[in-house]
Amino acid sequence: MSTTTKPRHIGRNISRIRELKGMKQEALAIAIGVSQQSVSNWEASETIEQEKLIQIAKALGVTIEAIENFSEESVFNFFNNFYDNSANNGAQGSGNTNNSCTFNPLDKVVELYERLVQAEKDKNEYLEKLLNGK
């Protein structure tokens, strides 16, 4: 039984990162300027040229190292730690979950409604002018 570690499958890592980001092969292909078939071929390859890897990493919004060292365990650890920290520290991580507005939201709704009504009145006046002008 061998204890040597199997080399990382770069294509599989690209596929998993792309899927985690909710991106389809077509979207990645468009972002790089290649065909969807090229992306499919890359994801099936164990190794990828460095220049292509740079383009892929840029399109996915990650570093080359993130692609090369990607593992499912690290993703789960990240999300578990993120969830634990956000649950303990509040949404902003400040420890203060008291979210208070500096304005009355109802006033903003009323203001928006009044602006919409005024826009409709202005539109009606304009249409009436057009009809009377003929």
Could you give the topology of this structure?
Blueprint: H1 10-20, H2 25-32, H3 36-44, H4 50-60, H5 64-68, H6 72-89, H7 105-133
Q: What attributes characterize this protein structure?
A:
134 residues; 68% helix; elongated
Mean pLDDT comes to 80
| Biggest pleated-sheet summary | none
Distance between the termini: 92 Å
Strand content: under 5%
**Which second-level CATH architecture of the largest domain applies?**
Orthogonal Bundle
Pfam families: HTH_3 (PF01381)
Protein name: Helix-turn-helix transcriptional regulator
Keywords: DNA-binding
Domain HTH cro/C1-type: 14-67
What does this structure look like?
By secondary structure, this protein is mainly α. The chain folds into two domains: 80 residues, lambda repressor-like DNA-binding domains (434 Repressor (Amino-terminal Domain)); 32 residues. It is built from seven helices and no strands. Helix 2 crosses helix 3. It starts with 9 loop residues before the first helix and ends with a helix. The model has no long low-confidence stretch (mean pLDDT 80). This is Helix-turn-helix transcriptional regulator. Pfam families: HTH_3. It comes from Flavobacterium artemisiae. InterPro entries: Cro/C1-type_HTH, Lambda_DNA-bd_dom_sf. Keywords: DNA-binding.
Question: Summary?
Answer:
This protein has 134 residues and is mainly alpha-helical. It has 7 helices and no strands.
